[in-house]
Design goal:
Blueprint: H1 5-13, E1 22-23, H2 26-33, E2 45-48, H3 52-65, E3 69-72, E4 87-90, E5 98-101, E6 106-109, H4 115-122, E7 127-128, H5 141-147, H6 160-163, E8 164-170, E9 176-178, H7 182-191, H8 193-208, H9 210-219, H10 231-235, H11 239-247, E10 256-263, E11 265-266, E12 270-278, H12 281-293, E13 298-302, H13 304-310, E14 328-336, H14 339-353, H15 368-379, H16 381-388, E15 394-401, H17 407-420, E16 427-431, E17 436-443, H18 448-468, H19 487-491, H20 493-506, H21 561-577, H22 581-597, H23 605-608, H24 615-626, H25 630-641, H26 643-664, H27 666-679, E18 692-694, E19 710-714, H28 717-721, E20 722-725, H29 734-744, E21 748-750, H30 762-766, H31 770-787, E22 795-797, H32 800-809, E23 816-817, H33 819-827, E24 831-833, E25 836-842, H34 846-850, H35 854-864, E26 865-869, H36 883-886, H37 888-894, H38 898-901, E27 906-911, H39 914-924, E28 927-930, H40 931-938, E29 939-941
Parallel strand pairs: 2-4, 3-4, 19-21, 19-22, 22-23, 25-26, 25-27, 27-28
Antiparallel strand pairs: 1-2, 5-6, 6-10, 7-11, 8-9, 8-10, 12-14, 13-14, 13-16, 15-17, 16-17, 18-20, 24-29
The structure holds flavin-adenine dinucleotide and iron/sulfur cluster (SF4) (2 copies).
Length: 943
């Protein structure tokens, strides 16, 4: 016995849960403890549970030691319900199984499935899950259900409460109940009669209590996530139905959701949107009941301050800047099963709104580009406030609902409150059909004066919402710690007591997320406020929302982008503070492997970040700090100045490895290479059987084709040195394939002068050597300028990361394309495609994704092969140039889902970056190479 219950708890659960999934060190507990809310609690222990049995064991032990447990899915919650200073039980990415039932009308989901993925699985059935939070591409089913999250379209009719069919749940004492299974229900009745009886009694009493019953019905006419889903006691009598529905919105305080089966809803294939500008909020709100009656899919209200916050951003309509002060917008979407029905709905909206004054005429569009531009206005609002906030301040998003017939009055009252409390940057937007308004403002939590201002403001907001409108203090985001002190104020004593009874029935020892939803501390919403100290301007705008986590290739191995930023913030804070040198030293050293070395620096995180943060840039900056020593700079300078020699050495190295492989055979070679890699402390690249063969430098004959027009071809240094893998039946270098396709299409191919010395700088940049990288890019530009006749001729580059760098950092005059993009855009009519009967795998590299090339790669691949597989859960491969050789575990972790996603008849894989293809081949067992090889096989000149 140690006297520390956490140590004893850890000892007990370690017998079942692998110790490498139990974290108690300062780095991981801070990283894993971070969520999107503005509260900071650091867990004593964080556990990545992998199975129902592990959750059950952990709960039983927690029960024994009376230790609080908080569940975690994606950590995108905003109200402080997913943080704890006790035990954090994470059921995230590994809980990703699903099954589709009854031809898509039901879907069974584990809690770690990302909401957007569930919709992808259902897309071919024309169905989707009901709940649609704006965070759906990051949030996971466990959190979506436990928060009863909702969004623009689902309203109160299609949220988790309305669409849950059954669930597997693990209660506080570790008991598993499957409400969809008769045997499990009967066993539960026998083992837990006290829960069944108590729930039935509560339901009977509540239904018999007219004033309480009607109050509950009234409160749920609009969106409401304040407190528990008391409607379960009014809507149902069967105890298992009551359990299913009480679990929804319970924020991990009643039990663990191990699996949920949803009734799915229709996803109409046709949709169109219109941005309507009304002269003021009153007129806009007069449109709302009309639009509700027409059953439009969404109507998003945006006040003038909202529109102002995005009006200067690229792609916004010019007229936003000149709108009068009181203008209020509604972004309206209609959806339909057929094009004809869509047109009828649009006509209906025009007719119904004809009598209302608008600031500008409006029209609906179903053109995807125009449609997306409109929705980008709405989606840009929250980030716009986040982006302009002062460093160190937090962006707060509140989430209230009013009776929808009083929305205009309520919006004006809120604007009044902003003025009174000097929140001049605050904006209001929201789901008008549901009376749900979000308001966003920036808040400094570093000074007591500012915390007091926030406290006074929130008190006034609560008074306004509850006393004046009898609205909801939390419509979608859950009560958390943020609204816990106001639950009784909103619901009244009787309903509040009912909530306390519910909690006591499910969790008599108060171990499940205590203090969340129900909390007797009137100041809990003002405690443990999260500091967001400055660390580096590359990431200071981060709001810790977590949207970047799902796509990060190191998320299952070490850290996510959000966690890297949270740790760097803490390191910077400790550096400034100076008080805790021990912690500073520990975090700085401990960060190196998970934070810096295993970041692929691919920048895919920026694609899903609402404020465009590329954490890879922070990593490269940190690497550059390590490389400032003059001897390292001298070596790098020499390499940049003698790139032809570096290429020759690479070729020699590849040739030597190839020869050794042939001599020793695969098994022996692998063993020796593993040993050498380990002995060198990861410095020697780890060989694998899919290593490329050396190719000789391009010869003059490559400039082929007599035709016009001319295209300049820059084969990257990788394509000039690395060929297909040793045993790949395709033996020709990529540059020969590329120039042959271009010649087939009637182009004359021209290479830049001094090709062997040229490089775009990517290998230097990724290592943190920006000066050498920029020098190489400038040299390349000079050569391309000459070859392209001063930028008149198009240029192609065959390696997507190099192309991306040239596009991002090169001069404006360069017209440079990926060869497949070039074929898609200019060459399709010059080639005759013959589709082969193969099943192939296609991998869009992160650079291709960032350049928006996925669709074009897919289209050209479909022209070449009968079946093209693009595995769902495979994102960035994390090979990252040569990092896959030094840290092969990163590549392995990023590609863990690749092999199981490929069909048995899939015999070849294609991509557009040679180094990425090495790792893809290794982890799939099939040869990956450039899609150009397949295009070459499947095409002939069209005449
Ligand atoms: C920018 C931004 C926009 C957002 N927009 C919306 C929106 O439009 N609508 C909306 O409703 N929300 C929104 N949210 C809030 C949040 O994204 C959602 O509520 C989301 O559903 C939370 O899911 P999660 O996977 O992140 O859950 P987490 O934050 O990890 O957890 C949420 C709660 O569920 C509990 N929990 C987690 N897993 C389980 C489990 N297996 N069993 C039982 N309890 C569990 C946790 O303890 C916690 O109380 C937004 C958040 C951000 C940052
Ligand atoms: S980096 Fe961007 S996406 Fe990631 S947590 Fe920060 S703000 Fe959110
Ligand atoms: S650059 Fe890549 S590996 Fe690094 S944090 Fe971003 S997504 Fe993750």
């Amino acid at each position: 016995m140690t006297g520390d219950p956490y140590i004893e708890f850890k000892q007990q659960i370690s017998q079942v849960i692998a110790t490498d999934r139990i974290f108690d060190d300062p780095l991981q507990t801070l990283a894993l403890g971070t969520d999107a809310s503005f509260y900071r609690l650091i867990p004593r222990l964080a556990i990545q549970a992998d199975s129902e049995n592990e959750v059950s064991i952990a709960l039983q032990a927690a029960h024994r030691f009376k230790l609080p447990v908080t569940f975690r899915a994606a950590g995108t919650s905003l109200s402080g319900q997913a943080v704890t200073d006790s035990i954090l039980l994470i059921a995230g990415g590994s809980w990703n199984h699903y099954s589709i039932e009854d031809n898509g009308s039901k879907i069974r989901l584990q809690p770690g499935v990302i909401g957007g993925h569930a919709n992808r699985y259902l897309a071919s059935y024309g169905r989707k899950i009901g709940p649609d939070p704006a965070s759906i591409n990051a949030a996971m089913i466990g959190g979506i259900a436990a928060n009863n999250a909702s969004g623009m379209c689902c309203g109160t009719a299609e949220n988790s409460y309305r669409t849950v069919s059954s669930m597997r749940t693990i209660l506080a004492d570790g008991t598993l109940l499957n409400t969809g299974d008769t045997n499990s229900r009967e066993a539960f009745r026998r083992s837990h009669p006290e829960i069944i009886d108590a729930l039935q009694e509560l339901a009977v009493k509540t239904q018999a209590n007219e004033s309480l019953r009607e109050r509950i019905r009234h409160k749920f006419k609009i969106k409401n996530t304040t407190g528990y889903s008391l409607n379960a006691l009014v809507d149902y009598t069967n105890p298992f139905d009551i359990i299913n529905h009480l679990m929804i919105g319970s924020e991990g305080t009643l039990g663990f959701i191990a699996e949920i089966t949803y009734d799915t809803v229709i996803e109409h294939p046709h949709k169109a949107s219109a941005l309507m500008m009304f002269p003021d909020v009153n007129t806009a709100c007069r449109a709302i009941p009309i639009l509700r009656a027409l059953e439009v899919a969404a109507a998003e209200l945006m006040d003038r301050a909202s529109l102002r916050s995005v009006q200067d951003k690229a792609g916004m309509p010019d007229y936003l800047k000149s709108l009068p002060e009181k203008v209020t917008a509604l972004l309206v979407e209609v959806r339909a099963a057929t094009k004809v029905e869509l047109t009828e709905s649009i006509d209906g909206v025009h007719k119904a709104l004809a009598a209302l004054a608008t600031e500008r005429p409006f029209s609906f569009t179903d053109d995807p580009d125009a449609f997306n531009r409109l929705w980008n206005i709405r989606k840009g609002l929250f980030p716009a406030v986040g982006a302009v906030r002062a460093v160190g301040t937090t962006v707060v998003i509140e989430d209230v609902a009013f009776p929808f017939d009083r929305l205009a009055e309520a919006a004006l009252d809120l604007q009044d409150l902003f003025k009174r409390h000097h929140y001049h940057e605050a904006i209001i937007f929201g789901h008008a059909l549901e009376g749900n308004l979000h308001f966003v403002f920036t808040q400094d939590f570093a000074s007591q004066k500012e915390v007091k201002r926030y406290q006074n403001f929130m008190q006034d907001v609560c008074d306004l919402v509850v006393k004046r409108y009898d609205g909801s203090l939390k419509a979608e985001h859950g009560t958390g710690r943020n609204m816990a002190p106001f639950v009784e104020m909103e619901w009244g004593r009787e309903a509040y007591e009912l909530m306390q009874k519910i909690k006591a029935i499910f969790d008599p020892h108060n171990i499940l997320n205590p203090g969340v939803i129900l909390n007797e501390n009137p100041h809990v919403h003002l405690e443990h406020l999260k500091p967001l100290p400055a660390t580096n301007q590359l990431v200071d705008k981060c709001i810790e929302c977590g949207f970047c986590e799902a796509t990060c290739p190191s998320k299952d191995l070490t850290l996510t982008p959000r966690q890297r930023i949270a740790l760097q913030r803490e390191i910077s804070r400790l550096q400034r503070d100076g008080a805790n040198q021990g912690r500073l030293q520990y975090l700085t050293n401990a960060y190196r492997y998970p934070g810096e070395q295993t970041c692929a620096a691919d920048g895919l995180c920026a694609v899903s970040c609402p404020v465009d943060i590329d954490t890879g840039k922070l990593t490269k900056y940190l690497r550059s700090l390590d490389l400032q020593a003059s001897h390292i700079q001298s070596v790098a300078n020499w390499m940049a100045g003698h790139f032809d020699k570096v290429s020759s050495v690479t070729r020699l190295g590849l040739a030597t490895m190839d020869a050794a492989h042939r001599l020793l055979g695969t098994e022996k070679m692998q063993r020796l290479a593993d040993q050498a890699h380990k002995l060198s402390g990861n410095r020697l690249p780890l060989w694998n059987p899919f290593m490329p063969r050396r190719v000789s430098r391009p010869q003059p004959g490559l400039e082929k084709g007599n035709g016009r027009p001319v295209v300049v071809y820059f084969p990257s240094c990788v394509a000039r040195t690395m060929g297909p893998a040793a045993d790949d039946p395709d033996r020709q270098p990529l540059y020969e394939i590329t120039s042959r396709i271009l010649a087939k299409a009637g182009y004359k191919v021209v290479l830049p002068e001094n090709l062997d010395r040229l490089c775009c700088g990517t290998p230097f940049e990724s290592k943190g050597l920006p000066d050498q990288a920029n020098r190489k890019l400038r040299e390349l530009e000079t050569a391309l300028m000459a070859a392209s006749d001063g930028g008149e001729r198009p240029i192609i580059c065959d390696t997507s990361p190099c192309l991306y760098r040239i596009r991002q950092n090169g001069s404006d005059w360069i017209q440079i394309y990926d060869p497949i993009e070039f074929i898609h855009d200019f060459v399709l009519d010059r080639l005759r495609f013959t589709q082969s009967n193969e099943t192939i795998a296609l991998h869009a590299t992160c650079s291709s994704i960032k350049m928006g090339l996925e669709g074009k790669l897919q289209k050209v691949a479909n022209m070449c092969a009968k079946k093209v597989i693009t595995p769902d859960r495979v994102g960035c491969c994390a090979f990252a140039g040569d990092r896959g050789f030094s840290f092969p575990e990163l590549n392995a972790s990023a590609l863990q889902d690749l092999k199981p996603s490929l069909a048995a008849d899939c015999t070849a894989g294609y991509s557009n970056s040679r180094t990425c293809e090495i790792g893809l081949s290794l982890h799939s067992g099939i040869y990956y190479k450039s899609l150009l090889y397949l295009i070459d096989r499947c095409t002939q000149p069209s005449v």
